[in-house]
Give the backbone structure.
Amino acid sequence: MSILSKPSDTGSAQANDMEFRQSQSAIPSDFVAILRQRGLIRGEWVQSTGSAGSFVETQATTILAFKYDEGVLIAGDRRATAGNIVMYDRADKVIEIDRHSVMAIAGSPAAAWEMARILEHSFQFYRRSQLQEMSVEGKVRALSKLLRDNLGMVIQGVGVVVPLFATYERQSSDPAKVFFYDAMGAQFEAADFAASGSGGPAVRSVLYYENGWGKKLLRERSGDEAITIALRALDTAAEADTATGGVDHHGKIYPIIKVITRDGISTIEHEKISSLYQSDLA
């Protein structure tokens, strides 16, 4: 009788152990639940609306980059959202890393801005210690490593970053460079253009049309033409995607647009953006 009861006892112990483990675990994507179970936070998180509920991460979208006749144009709308709440309408998603490199962010601003700061200090340290600029390959892989290091947070459901990286390599036969990434750090070089964020599909459609059926290829457009195309793309994305801010002429909120040329990085003034936008509408 005792011999027959042993498997039953073992099975019961295993079931109890499994039940205990399950009670101590959480859904992998629910990082806040893990913190609550470990006693690191108490009660409910409070959303920006002021009501108790689950944690909603702030997200930043939409960004784009493409080559034009003098270099690379990089742009991003200004809206940051948390669920269906507009957190901020003047977010800066286009960040200068060094004299010829720009990172545009889509996803979690908190994680992305920290990555940008790390890149900036890494490039600066390399330049001062080695007395030369880091190679484009080194810069691209440095960002890829930061994304891979962030994979643990991504698996937990927070901190996802899907950036664009643009730079200008004077020694290259094709000096304008645009790279895009996935959340795991895989890197890809764009031939002509790239876009990311929730409004990315609409932006890519506009850029593909302009590059294939427009008057000229994107890389043959002048600076003013390139700015106009970027505004069209972001405005189109705003019509299809509520997380994209687009152009708010009445509120004087315009996308951040930067260009990288042989001479370095320039930020397009809002007055010029407004003028070109109004001229395009006329």
User: Anything to note?
Assistant: Confidence is low (pLDDT under 50) at residues 1-7, 20-29, 44-52. The chain is about 40% helix and 20% strand.
